[in-house]
Amino acid sequence: MRQFKPKRSTGILSLEAEIKRDLQRHLKWLGFSKDGSGLLCPPELTKECFKALHASHRDERLARETGFIARAWPSLSCYFADGCEVQPSHISPRLELIQGGTWQSELFRLAALTWSVPVSQGYGRRMRFLVWDDYNERLIGLLALGDPVFNLRVRDEWIGWNVKQREERLVNVLDAYVLGAVPPYNMMLGGKLIACLARTRDVREIFTERYRDTCGIISGKRKRADLCLITTSSALGRSSLYNRLSLDGNRIFISIGYTSGWGHFHIPDALFAKMREYLSRIDDRYARNYGFGEGPNWKLRATRKVLSRIGMDPDLLRHGILREVFVCPLASNAREFLTGKVEHPCFPDLKTSNEVAKAALARWVIPRAERRPEFQAWRRSDTERLLHPQLGWSSRNGADRIKPRRA
């Protein structure tokens, strides 16, 4: 007997057709093509191409934030430096942990909007830092650490743990989902300075104070957490910032491979809103907002659900842009601890943020400033232009964008 299938309403069919049409047009506009297997291929595998592919997503984000930018910029613009205010030999970096609902939190939000690739808000446990230049009271850049994704093949293979070990010990890992310098400090390799600050005694001690006794959101179990590993990934293919990043003989970040090229950045927010409307009309649970602990990457799974329901290939979520993945071991025996081979992590060579900053300034920032004095021409008004794409300002000189984790 043939199975009965209820007819879909004309409104549902019309919305399905609209989603198909909009997605096909958007992918074509971005320059995607398909290979012989029907998989998406980006137009070019270059950083400038990757930035261009993210441009529409960034423009959508800035359009939504227009009101915030107009309100926040007049009072917070003073914390962005003119190039002439920066004295490389006197730069004095300081990490400031910020709390939500403060002007520092608004400054973090505003500075992140200058990135050429939109950044995630993170989820679960979060530690967000402003990195200040105490010499002139100007902002050097941003660092944000949050809960990592549960499944990340290259990370899990590098650690060598099984599923049970990962469930028990992922609590000891964080992901740097925002990491970079704002102009003009980015022109002096300030991003390398901030990357080094992630591997400091200060960061570990702040983590211990906030999260030592943690209740797992998914497991519901009390866990004694000890930060021993930070992960991150490049936003624009292979990273020139993290590769071979060493300081005083210590590797800061280690490249461990690439992601497989899945994601949803090429699904614009306006189109995803239609997808949610479609899910709502068919009374699907994915129409509701994602709550942490309900499974990984709600937006990716919701989009896949819609594509399958309307007869499109879910593999359209495989955009083909591979992100380089890095690990930053804080503990000398991080892998042994995460796989349960040893009971306690060891931190024999962690230095304070002041010690690390001093070494990073001498290693990268001051020499680059001497070789490339163009940073002196940067003006605060140039930073403001990065927040208004309609002015036609190039993002080439914008802030360093590292992980933005999970957009």
How are the secondary structure elements laid out?
Elements: H1 10-30, E1 33-34, E2 40-41, H2 47-64, H3 66-76, E3 93-97, H4 103-112, E4 126-133, E5 138-146, H5 153-159, H6 163-169, E6 173-181, H7 190-197, H8 201-211, E7 213-215, E8 222-224, E9 229-233, E10 246-247, E11 250-251, E12 254-258, H9 269-281, H10 298-309, E13 324-329, H11 334-338, H12 353-371, H13 380-386
Parallel strand pairs: 6-9
Antiparallel strand pairs: 1-2, 3-4, 4-5, 5-6, 7-8, 9-13, 10-11, 12-13
Commentary on this structure:
This protein has 407 residues and is an alpha+beta fold. It has 13 helices and 13 strands. A 7-stranded mixed β-sheet has the order 3-4-5-6-9-13-12, with helices on both faces. Strands 1-2 form a two-stranded antiparallel sheet. Strand 1 and strand 2 form a beta hairpin. Helix 1 packs antiparallel against helix 9, helix 3 crosses helix 4 and helix 7 runs antiparallel to helix 12. It is globular. It starts with 9 loop residues before the first helix and ends in a 21-residue tail after the last helix. The N terminus and C terminus are likely disordered.
